[in-house]
Amino acid sequence: MTTLKFDISENRKTLIVIAGPTAVGKTSFSIQLAKKLQTEILSADSRQFYKEMVIGTAAPTMEEREGITHHFIGHLSIFDYYNVSMYEQDALNVLNELFKKKQYAILTGGSGLYIDAVCSGIDALPDVDSTLRENLQKRLDMEGLAVLLDELKNLDEEYYHIVDKQNPKRVLRALEVCLQTQETYTSLRTRSAKKRDFSIVRICLTLPREELNNRINLRTEEMIKNGFLEEARKLFPYRQLNPLNTVGYKELFDYIDGQYSWELCIEKIKTQTRRYAKRQMTWFKKNKDYIFLNPFEEFV
After folding, report:
1. Which residues neighbour 241 within 8 Å (Cβ) at sequence distance 6 or greater?
2. DSSP at 203
3. From residue 266, how far is each of 56, 72, 93, 232, 272 by CA, in Å?
4. What pLDDT sits at residue 164?
5. What predicted TM-score, i.e. pTM, was given to this entire model?
6. What is the rounded CA–CA span in Å between residue 55 and residue 72?
7. How high is the pLDDT of residue 4?
8. Per-10-residue mean pLDDT, the chain, length 300
9. Residues whose CB is less than 8 angstroms from the CB of residue 165 and which lie 6 or more positions away in sequence, other chains included
10. How far apart are the first and last CA of the chain?
C-alpha cells in the first residue's frame, strides 16, 4: 500500500496534480482520490475540453463522474477559440472559489503545458503580428508540418524535443514567438514562475512500458467498439480545425478519406498513441517535483 503524505500546514490549501501518459489510469485514480478527500476535479486534458470529442478523448463518462464535480470537460466547442493562457485564468478562478469551501482540489490530465500553466503560470507571451501568423499558416498548408518542425528545431531545439509533433497549433505558436521576438519559446515560457497562494503536490502515474502499451491497445479497441469511427465521421467536415489535429481523429479522417485500410488505420492509431504517451512522459520527467506512482497500488 502506498501512503500519500502531504507536507503542508493544516490551514494551507493544496492542489494535488495527477499527471501521466494517456491510458495510464488517471481518471479512475483521480476519482478515487477525490472521493477520499471529498473534493472536486479540474481537467487539464486539453482534448477533453471539447464537447464534440467524447469517445476519442476517453473523457470520463457521466457514470464515472457521478458524485464528483468535474470542471473543464466538454465546456467548449471545436469552433471556439481557446488557448493555454485563457485556461490558466479560468482554472485559477475555479480554484479560488473551490478553496473557499475545500481543503484540497485535484488537477488531472496529460497536457503538461496546461498543468504547468496552473502550477507556475504562463508568461505573458507577446501578441503575434497577424501577417506573420497568416504566413506561417500558409506555409503549413503548402509545405507541411515536417518543414516547420525542422525550422523549430533550428530556432529552439529544447522545445522541439518536448512539443507534441502531431499538434500543428503548438508548433505554430512556438514558431510565431521565436520569429517575432528573436528569442527561444523555451526561454520566454520558463523565465519566471508565478507564485501561487496554495500548496502543490505533483503526482505522475506511471507503468512499465509493455503494460502501458497493452492498455493503449485495449483502449483503442474499446473506443472503436464505442463508436469512435461514427464520431469521427460527424467531425470529418471540420477536420481542418485545430482541436481535431490530434491522435486518433487524424488517422480516422485519413481512413475516411480513403488513404489506407481499416486494419492499417487501427494500427496507426495505436502506434501514434504510444508515441504520444512517450512524449508525455518526457515532459513530466523533466520536472523533479513529481512523485511517480503506480496507479493500481492501494493508497491512503
Report:
1. 78, 79
2. E
3. 13, 29, 40, 13, 10
4. 87
5. 0.81
6. 16
7. 60
8. 52 93 97 96 96 97 95 97 88 98 97 91 70 87 94 94 89 89 78 84 97 98 98 96 91 97 98 94 92 81
9. 145, 149, 171, 279
10. 8
Contacts 24+ apart (CB under 8 A), 169-175: 169/242, 169/245, 170/113, 171/145, 172/133, 172/136, 172/137, 172/140, 172/148, 175/136, 175/148, 175/151
pLDDT of the residue at 79: 95
Contact status, residue 88 vs residue 121, Cβ threshold 8 Å? yes
Predicted pLDDT at 31 = 96
8 A C-beta contact, residue 64 and residue 71? no
Q: Please report the pLDDT score of residue 9 as a whole number.
A: 47
Q: What is the DSSP annotation of 11-52? A: TS-EEEEEE--TTSSHHHHHHHHHHHHT--EEE--GGGGBTT
Q: Which three cell numbers stand for residue 50?
A: 471539447
CA count, 13 A, side-chain hemisphere, 267: 5
- DSSP secondary structure letter of residue 192: -
**CA gap 8, 22 in Å, rounded:** 29
Structural domains for the chain: 14-123+195-208+281-293 (3.40.50.300), 130-189 (1.10.20.140), 209-279 (1.10.287.890)
Distance separating alpha carbons of residues 294 and 272, to the nearest angstrom: 23
Give the span between the Cα atoms of 150 and 286, in whole angstroms. Answer: 23
